[in-house]
Amino acid sequence: MNSPDELAERCAEFSGRRPGEKLVAEEYLPGTLRTLETLGDGETTWLLGGFLTTVSAPPWFVEERLTWDPLPPGEELDHVRRALGDLGVSFGACHTEFICDGQGGARLVEVNDRLIGDHDEFVMAELLDDDLFERVLRVHLGERLPVGPAPVGPGHAVADYMIAERSGILRMAPPGGPLDGAEPGVSLSYWPLRQPGDRVTVTHSNRDYLGVITATGPDRARVERSVGAARGANQWDIG
């Protein structure tokens, strides 16, 4: 919020929609929102990579797109790894979100003892030269991870969310499955999160997702062109 008056106004709006419930006000952290995806067996930890998260303008911060963009070695990555170590993160899959301030600093937003969600885990799995889901299960069955870096192959990936801009009935949306328009070497799909006929109420959260276009491929240019083609060739209509 930009002022105490605006905070009071937002609180009043919330109380009007959900009377009697508690509201938690969080600090706004300027910077770039990123994720770090890890898998550990208690001793060895694989750095699987991470996404750069594009969010909508304040005050809602809805996650609009995730772009595969692992944080390079350096002060920011070291800071996040030390923080996870202090929290005792060493076993199983972990999805961490943090803000980079552009000056070498990083502040944790959330730490989750699971794989990333919203179908981004499937996108990440396509970039690995390993069966991600089998590997997670094997760790929980007591199998050790091979020592060394995670088997991440070269490539680029995007998860691009279709977000409702107004409330109403979803009249038109593409079916789930592979999409036309993929360039050579690119896997392009649509995962529906709402079906035609569903009533959509805008909440300024990820509940507004209609579906997600996912794409993986050998390089950024081909992946981005494929996603752009899919957006242009399909329609999401709310009436």
Give an account of the 3D structure:
The protein is an alpha+beta fold. It has two domains: 31-153, 2-Layer Sandwich (D-amino Acid Aminotransferase, Chain A, domain 1); 156-239, Aldehyde Oxidoreductase, domain 3. It has five helices and 13 strands. The protein has helices spanning 4-17, 75-86, 120-127, 132-140, 220-233; strands at residues 32-41, 45-49, 51-55, 63-68, 91-100, 106-112, 156-163, 168-172, 177-178, 187-192, 199-200, 209-217, 237-238. The strands form three sheets. The protein has a six-stranded antiparallel beta sheet with strand order 3-4-7-12-10-9, sandwiched between helices. Strands 2-1-5-6 form a four-stranded antiparallel beta sheet. A three-stranded antiparallel beta sheet has the order 11-8-13, with no helix packed on it. The radius of gyration is 20 Å and the shape is globular.
Gist?
It contains 5 helices and 13 strands.
